[in-house]
Amino acid sequence: MTEILTSAQMRAIEAAAIASGGITGLDLMERAGQGVVEAVFAEWPALAAAPHRAVVLCGPGNNGGDGFVVARLLKGWGWEVEVFLYGNPERLPPDARVNYERWCEVGAVGDWPSAVARFSFPSFDADYPDTDLVVDALFGIGLTRPLPDEVMEVAFALNDREQPRSGWIVAVDIPSGLSAETGRACSDGDPDRALYCDLTVTFHRPKLGHYLADGPEFCQKLVVCDIGLPAPGAAAREKQVERDE
Ligand SMILES: NC(=O)C1=CN([C@@H]2O[C@H](COP(=O)(O)OP(=O)(O)OC[C@H]3O[C@@H](n4cnc5c(N)ncnc54)[C@H](O)[C@@H]3O)[C@@H](O)[C@H]2O)[C@@H](O)CC1
Ligand SMILES: [K+]
């Protein structure tokens, strides 16, 4: 049976693994980004066959940090990558900040008004070449309140599937706007206040929100990626082995 976690359980597992000294948050973030790229290439082999164009939307927390890793890795594959940050780079949490800096060594970061302009009609339609992949690294399991209006401006454009110029959309951990606990958009009643994705790549174990309520519709295909965290009960088993020796 698949084990499904709450956000709090996932945080506790990550914190325990980091505290044990076996792995750093930065390692986990790198593996998360690698897992997203691998899942994208496995899902759409044509994207792995030659460099394409991506837009990476990064948020103000560690989900955004995963996005900077994905951007750097895709650039390493020869892709053309545009990155936009919703938030203040000075206030990124430490691991996300490191990956922001690493990205800045190889590419530019647009601010959020530029992202809104990028996806506004009619410029989205007329002024920009097709994008093959949008990476949603805005909010993950840390989303605590409804998506801000300026983020929804971009999400509405991407959710409009009559305008297929954005290519495939991959969600890092969970589609932005969706509660990892309830599977509903964090909103005061608008069920569409989240980003509809084609592929969702989550880490270690699925979360409740991937399966409950509207979760499956927002996530579409769900891939669970191993980022090197211990399996449930592993710590207890290790202690048992120590006692037996
Ligand atoms: N070491 C780690 O903690 C790891 C975290 N990972 C990634 O980190 C994510 C969790 O990171 P965080 O806990 O930083 O959370 P998020 O990155 O999901 O978002 C938290 C940030 O968004 C802000 N926020 C929340 N709701 C908002 C709203 N409606 N409007 C504006 N700002 C809002 C919070 O104040 C905080 O700054 C996971 O989903 C996963 O993608 C992975 O890299 C694996 C390792
Ligand atoms: K996300």
From TrEMBL:
Gene3D superfamilies: YjeF N-terminal domain. Its cofactor is K(+). GO terms for molecular function: metal ion binding; NAD(P)HX epimerase activity; nucleotide binding. Pfam families: YjeF_N. InterPro entries: YjeF_N_dom (IPR004443), YjeF_N_dom_sf (IPR036652), YJEFN_prot_NAXE-like (IPR032976). Binds 1 potassium ion per subunit. It catalyses: (6R)-NADHX = (6S)-NADHX; (6R)-NADPHX = (6S)-NADPHX. Its EC number is 5.1.99.6. Residues 10-235 form the YjeF N-terminal domain. (6S)-NADPHX binds at residues 62-66, 140-146, 173. Keywords: Isomerase, Metal-binding, NAD, NADP, Nucleotide-binding, Potassium. K(+) binds at residues 63, 136, 176. It is an enzyme of class 5 (isomerase). Catalyzes the epimerization of the S- and R-forms of NAD(P)HX, a damaged form of NAD(P)H that is a result of enzymatic or heat-dependent hydration. This is a prerequisite for the S-specific NAD(P)H-hydrate dehydratase to allow the repair of both epimers of NAD(P)HX. Belongs to the NnrE/AIBP family. PANTHER family: NAD(P)H-HYDRATE EPIMERASE. This is NAD(P)H-hydrate epimerase. It comes from Frigidibacter mobilis. The lineage of its organism: Bacteria, Pseudomonadati, Pseudomonadota, Alphaproteobacteria, Rhodobacterales.
